[in-house]
Amino acid sequence: MQKILPNVYYFVDTFNLPDLLKLSRNLNIIYRNYNDFDHFKNLSKLKSFCKKNNNKLYLSNDIKLALKLGLNGVYLPSFNNQLNYAGKYSLPKNFKIIGSAHNLKEIRIKEAQQCSEIFLSPLFLTKNHQKYLGIIKFNLLSMNSRKKIVALGGIRKENLKKIFLLKINGIAGITLFKKKAPEGAF
Questions:
Q1: N or C: which end of the chain has fewer CB within 10 A?
Q2: Which tens digit of pLDDT belongs to each residue from 43-90?
Q3: 81: burial class by Cβ within 10 Å (0-12, 13-18, 19+)?
Q4: Helices (H) and strands (E) in the chain — how many of each?
Q5: d(Cα 30, Cα 11) in Å, to the nearest integer?
Q6: Cβ within 8 Å of residue 180, ≥6 positions away
């Protein structure tokens, strides 16, 4: 029997309806576009799409805008190392803070930032990262936190079965979801 992952995240940097329509309904969407400073148009379309399709929507690195728009939460990339990031805000009960890390020091920062889930990356080889954790180092690092761990980086159809060797709460990616994911994979 295949393990069911409770959380699956897909990163987007724009509103692309054909790509979004390929997604299953249980996916969480993280909008991260660091080049476009006028996010409102994309976020408005994404929020409407997510509401209709029962997807959760997270905004990268802008807790103030995520709260203002009533999104499900905020995603803190590994380069965000502000320790009291959420302390300035009154957060709604169901608002989640999630973030990514590459090593033990960054895991500790994400814990201090009150992240409920930590995306540990890169699990496998990617075109952007020549160094990757692999199964053993990933598992060793993930045992150093009591937070829920999400696998990120290089997850493809060819190595999808390997993720079930990990103690994780979910997976995140881009490439895996660009094409229709294998039926029943999540």
A1: N
A2: 999 999 999 998 999 999 999 999 999 999 999 999 999 887 777 888
A3: middle
A4: 6, 8
A5: 5
A6: 22
Token pair in block for residue 39: 């996010």
Structure tokens, 157: 């159809």
Q: Quote the pTM value.
A: 0.88
Compute the distance between CA of residue 181 and CA of residue 92 in angstroms, rounded to an integer: 33
- Which H helix or E strand runs over 30? strand 27-31
CB distance 124 to 132 below 8 Å? yes
Tell me the DSSP string of 126-173.
Answer: -SS-S---HHHHHHHHHTT-SSEEEEESS--GGGGGGGGGS--SEEEE
- Nearest alpha-carbon partner for 32 in 174, 128, 155: 174
Residue 155 token pair: 């997850």
| CA 120 – CA 140 distance, rounded (Å) | 11
Length of the chain: 186
Decide: 55 and 49 in contact? Cβ < 8 Å: yes
Q: Which residue has the tokens 């805008």?
A: 65
